Amino acid sequence: MQMNKVMKSFIIALPVVTMMACSSGPSEEELAAERNRQAQEQAQAEREAKAAQEARVKAEAAQRMEREEEMAQQELESLKNEQTVYFDFDRSSIKAEFRSLLDKHAKFLVENPDQNVVIEGHTDSRGTPEYNIALGERRGKAVQTYLMNAGVSSGQISVVSYGEEKPAVMGSTEYAMAQNRRGVVVYQ
Protein backbone atom coordinates (compact mmCIF):
# COMPACT_ATOMS: atom_id res chain seq x y z
CA MET A 1 0.00 0.00 0.00
CA GLN A 2 2.74 2.31 0.75
CA MET A 3 4.18 1.60 -2.60
CA ASN A 4 0.89 2.36 -4.15
CA LYS A 5 0.75 5.75 -2.46
CA VAL A 6 4.31 6.56 -3.57
CA MET A 7 3.48 5.49 -7.07
CA LYS A 8 0.33 7.64 -7.14
CA SER A 9 2.29 10.62 -5.82
CA PHE A 10 4.98 10.02 -8.43
CA ILE A 11 2.46 9.80 -11.23
CA ILE A 12 0.86 13.04 -10.12
CA ALA A 13 4.16 14.86 -9.50
CA LEU A 14 5.81 13.82 -12.77
CA PRO A 15 3.57 15.89 -15.08
CA VAL A 16 3.73 18.87 -12.70
CA VAL A 17 7.55 18.75 -12.62
CA THR A 18 7.68 18.30 -16.38
CA MET A 19 5.42 21.31 -16.95
CA MET A 20 7.48 23.41 -14.59
CA ALA A 21 10.69 22.42 -16.32
CA CYS A 22 9.28 23.29 -19.74
CA SER A 23 7.91 26.63 -18.69
CA SER A 24 11.01 27.81 -16.79
CA GLY A 25 12.89 29.22 -19.85
CA PRO A 26 11.79 32.36 -21.72
CA SER A 27 9.78 31.93 -24.87
CA GLU A 28 10.91 33.30 -28.25
CA GLU A 29 8.46 36.18 -27.88
CA GLU A 30 9.88 37.07 -24.49
CA LEU A 31 13.42 36.95 -25.88
CA ALA A 32 12.42 39.16 -28.83
CA ALA A 33 10.72 41.61 -26.47
CA GLU A 34 13.84 41.76 -24.29
CA ARG A 35 16.05 42.39 -27.35
CA ASN A 36 13.66 45.11 -28.46
CA ARG A 37 13.74 46.76 -25.02
CA GLN A 38 17.55 46.69 -24.96
CA ALA A 39 17.74 48.16 -28.49
CA GLN A 40 15.36 50.96 -27.49
CA GLU A 41 17.38 51.72 -24.36
CA GLN A 42 20.58 51.81 -26.41
CA ALA A 43 18.96 54.07 -29.04
CA GLN A 44 17.71 56.39 -26.29
CA ALA A 45 21.17 56.51 -24.71
CA GLU A 46 22.70 57.35 -28.10
CA ARG A 47 20.12 60.14 -28.66
CA GLU A 48 20.87 61.55 -25.21
CA ALA A 49 24.63 61.40 -25.87
CA LYS A 50 24.16 63.12 -29.24
CA ALA A 51 21.97 65.82 -27.68
CA ALA A 52 24.55 66.37 -24.94
CA GLN A 53 27.32 66.66 -27.57
CA GLU A 54 25.26 69.15 -29.59
CA ALA A 55 24.61 71.19 -26.45
CA ARG A 56 28.36 71.26 -25.69
CA VAL A 57 29.15 72.34 -29.25
CA LYS A 58 26.52 75.10 -29.09
CA ALA A 59 27.80 76.29 -25.71
CA GLU A 60 31.39 76.36 -26.99
CA ALA A 61 30.30 78.26 -30.11
CA ALA A 62 28.40 80.76 -27.96
CA GLN A 63 31.42 81.26 -25.72
CA ARG A 64 33.68 81.68 -28.75
CA MET A 65 31.31 84.26 -30.26
CA GLU A 66 31.10 86.07 -26.95
CA ARG A 67 34.90 86.23 -26.73
CA GLU A 68 35.11 87.47 -30.31
CA GLU A 69 32.50 90.14 -29.57
CA GLU A 70 34.40 91.20 -26.45
CA MET A 71 37.63 91.40 -28.43
CA ALA A 72 35.92 93.42 -31.17
CA GLN A 73 34.47 95.75 -28.53
CA GLN A 74 37.89 96.19 -26.92
CA GLU A 75 39.44 96.87 -30.31
CA LEU A 76 36.71 99.40 -31.09
CA GLU A 77 37.33 101.17 -27.79
CA SER A 78 41.03 101.26 -28.57
CA LEU A 79 40.34 102.70 -32.02
CA LYS A 80 38.08 105.37 -30.55
CA ASN A 81 41.12 106.62 -28.64
CA GLU A 82 43.05 106.97 -31.91
CA GLN A 83 40.60 108.41 -34.37
CA THR A 84 42.16 111.66 -35.54
CA VAL A 85 44.27 112.30 -38.64
CA TYR A 86 45.99 115.68 -38.80
CA PHE A 87 46.67 117.62 -42.01
CA ASP A 88 49.13 120.27 -43.07
CA PHE A 89 47.94 123.83 -43.69
CA ASP A 90 45.69 124.06 -46.74
CA ARG A 91 46.30 120.36 -47.60
CA SER A 92 44.10 117.29 -47.79
CA SER A 93 46.66 114.56 -48.41
CA ILE A 94 47.17 111.84 -45.79
CA LYS A 95 50.54 112.12 -44.06
CA ALA A 96 52.65 108.96 -43.92
CA GLU A 97 52.61 108.99 -40.11
CA PHE A 98 48.83 108.42 -40.09
CA ARG A 99 48.70 105.51 -42.55
CA SER A 100 49.25 102.86 -39.88
CA LEU A 101 46.43 104.39 -37.82
CA LEU A 102 44.08 104.31 -40.80
CA ASP A 103 45.20 100.75 -41.59
CA LYS A 104 44.02 99.71 -38.10
CA HIS A 105 40.64 101.32 -38.71
CA ALA A 106 40.41 99.72 -42.15
CA LYS A 107 41.25 96.26 -40.78
CA PHE A 108 38.60 96.59 -38.09
CA LEU A 109 35.97 97.81 -40.55
CA VAL A 110 36.72 95.01 -43.01
CA GLU A 111 36.43 92.41 -40.22
CA ASN A 112 33.21 94.03 -38.93
CA PRO A 113 31.12 94.85 -42.01
CA ASP A 114 28.12 95.83 -39.86
CA GLN A 115 30.12 98.70 -38.34
CA ASN A 116 29.75 102.16 -39.92
CA VAL A 117 31.79 105.34 -39.58
CA VAL A 118 31.39 109.01 -40.33
CA ILE A 119 34.52 110.86 -41.37
CA GLU A 120 34.39 114.42 -40.07
CA GLY A 121 36.52 116.95 -41.95
CA HIS A 122 37.70 120.01 -40.00
CA THR A 123 39.85 123.08 -40.73
CA ASP A 124 41.45 125.90 -38.82
CA SER A 125 39.92 129.37 -38.89
CA ARG A 126 41.99 130.75 -41.77
CA GLY A 127 40.07 131.21 -45.01
CA THR A 128 36.44 131.89 -45.80
CA PRO A 129 33.72 129.66 -44.35
CA GLU A 130 32.89 128.36 -47.85
CA TYR A 131 36.51 127.52 -48.58
CA ASN A 132 36.89 125.79 -45.21
CA ILE A 133 33.76 123.68 -45.76
CA ALA A 134 35.17 122.56 -49.11
CA LEU A 135 38.61 121.88 -47.58
CA GLY A 136 37.03 119.90 -44.72
CA GLU A 137 35.13 117.89 -47.33
CA ARG A 138 38.33 117.14 -49.25
CA ARG A 139 40.02 116.01 -46.03
CA GLY A 140 37.11 113.72 -45.15
CA LYS A 141 37.09 112.32 -48.70
CA ALA A 142 40.86 111.70 -48.50
CA VAL A 143 40.36 109.56 -45.38
CA GLN A 144 37.38 107.83 -47.01
CA THR A 145 39.40 107.04 -50.14
CA TYR A 146 42.27 105.67 -48.08
CA LEU A 147 39.92 103.36 -46.15
CA MET A 148 38.16 102.20 -49.31
CA ASN A 149 41.50 101.46 -50.97
CA ALA A 150 42.27 99.30 -47.91
CA GLY A 151 39.13 97.23 -48.56
CA VAL A 152 36.41 98.98 -46.57
CA SER A 153 33.00 99.03 -48.24
CA SER A 154 31.80 102.43 -49.40
CA GLY A 155 28.49 101.68 -47.66
CA GLN A 156 30.25 101.72 -44.30
CA ILE A 157 31.63 105.25 -44.70
CA SER A 158 30.01 108.65 -44.92
CA VAL A 159 31.70 112.04 -44.93
CA VAL A 160 30.65 115.32 -43.33
CA SER A 161 32.52 118.61 -43.33
CA TYR A 162 32.35 121.01 -40.43
CA GLY A 163 34.96 123.40 -41.79
CA GLU A 164 36.03 125.70 -38.99
CA GLU A 165 32.77 125.33 -37.03
CA LYS A 166 33.92 122.75 -34.45
CA PRO A 167 37.47 123.56 -33.35
CA ALA A 168 39.25 121.01 -31.18
CA VAL A 169 41.33 123.76 -29.55
CA MET A 170 40.27 127.38 -29.26
CA GLY A 171 42.78 130.08 -30.13
CA SER A 172 44.86 131.40 -32.97
CA THR A 173 48.24 129.95 -32.03
CA GLU A 174 49.97 127.64 -34.48
CA TYR A 175 49.41 124.74 -32.07
CA ALA A 176 45.65 125.43 -31.87
CA MET A 177 45.36 125.73 -35.64
CA ALA A 178 47.34 122.52 -36.20
CA GLN A 179 44.99 120.65 -33.83
CA ASN A 180 41.98 121.92 -35.79
CA ARG A 181 43.23 120.75 -39.22
CA ARG A 182 41.95 117.22 -38.90
CA GLY A 183 39.82 114.35 -40.08
CA VAL A 184 38.09 112.33 -37.39
CA VAL A 185 36.87 108.74 -37.75
CA VAL A 186 33.65 108.53 -35.72
CA TYR A 187 32.07 105.10 -35.17
CA GLN A 188 28.28 104.91 -35.29
Automatic annotation (TrEMBL):
InterPro entries in the cross-refs: Bact_OuterMem_StrucFunc, OMP_bac, OmpA-like, OmpA-like_sf, Pal, Pal_lipo_C
Disordered: annotated span: 28-53
Gene3D superfamilies: OmpA-like domain
Domain of life: Bacteria
Membrane topology: Lipid-anchor
Start-end of Basic and acidic residues biased regions: 32-53
Homology family: Belongs to the Pal lipoprotein family.
Name listed for the protein in its UniProt record: Peptidoglycan-associated lipoprotein
Species for this entry: Alteromonas salexigens
